[in-house]
Amino acid sequence: MNRRMRDVIVVGGGVVGAACALALADAGLDVTLVEGREPAHWQAAQPDLRVYAFAPDNAQLLQALGVWPAVLSARACAYRRMRVWDAAGGEELCFDADRLGREQLGWIVENDLLVDRLWAALPAAGVQLCCPARVEALEQDEDGVRLRLDDGRRLEARLAVAADGAESTLRQLAGLQVTREDYGQRGVVAYIDTEHDNEATAWQRFLTTGPLAVLPAGTRRSSIVWTLPDAEAERVLALDDVAFGQELTRAFGARLGAMTLASRRAAFPLRRQLATAYVAGRVVALGDAAHVVHPLAGQGVNLGLRDVAALRERVLQAQQRRQDWSSPDRLQRWARERRSDNTVSAYGFDAINKVFSNDEMHLTLARGRALGCVGKWPPLVSAFWKRAAGLG
């Protein structure tokens, strides 16, 4: 039994959940983090296949929390350009750090590294850990929440945060519903070596089967996210290493020369999933518990961390004004802001995927030309990048 009233219980210790616990503790709240299993320590010799195109605004958040220097000192590959083009033809769209007045557009960072560095910062921030433990039951009223864990402990808090992923138990216990569309696609991920230097560039080629992203992880090493229909993903996963590299090289138009496999391969199903509301009483949902989007723009974890940054900002504003940081009105304002932004992003990625992932003649003729037109108008290029970077 542990019936002390806390300020916040965060359920889920992935990147977004751990960042949320750290951010709210940094804002002066009494925070407990509940997680089903302790994450494995990051090892430089075993790079994680799950990587993110980490945006500048979220680097600023982790900098404010004292975590970003530890990430940079371990391994984070800055990219200075992003090139996007359609295999069917037309001009490419290019984002360039020099033209945008930036040192870099962002960083490619491994999931396991982020989790490891966030967890390392939790004890000093005063976050209490309940791990391993899972939520089994929820009760709540207007004053707070009561959680029963599978190890018998009972926790109370003014607010509970569901950050326990797409299949969130806490979200379901709170009665928050989701809408879902399965894309019938999988994201095939791996590390590859390329014949030519990747030029510190994040590359994305649109194919009728789905986008292929090649993200820098070194001078000639890259991480791929290859979106394919389910059956096609199964087929390429079954290829031997040499045949896989040859097929990948063809799919990328040999832009970086020959590609060879440098790691194991894996695949994950793709879908759009959106919570119909982010708040139910004293429970809020964020990150993948609230929104799952297509990975073509690399924005999944960035959107989740923006949920965290916005919640932290609401708390700090309330404290400065000597107001209740957990009031229903304040939580609903946060939810409206974040749900609007995340929904626009999710359906935008959905539309891009559907427009480019098909061979319909009229769309094929128009889409490459559209990319070229955007690329010729610098203010529009800048506006697109600022939104993706969280700076617009």
TrEMBL record:
Keywords: FAD, Flavoprotein, Monooxygenase, Oxidoreductase
Keyword field contains Oxidoreductase: yes
Pathway membership: Cofactor biosynthesis; ubiquinone biosynthesis
Pfam hit, one: FAD_binding_3
Residue span(s) of domain FAD-binding: 7-339
Cofactor(s) the protein needs: FAD
Family membership: Belongs to the UbiH/COQ6 family.
PANTHER family: 2-OCTAPRENYL-6-METHOXYPHENOL HYDROXYLASE (PTHR43876:SF8), UBIQUINONE BIOSYNTHESIS MONOOXYGENASE COQ6, MITOCHONDRIAL (PTHR43876)
NCBIfam families: PRK08773.1, Ubi-OHases
Record-given protein name: UbiH/UbiF family hydroxylase
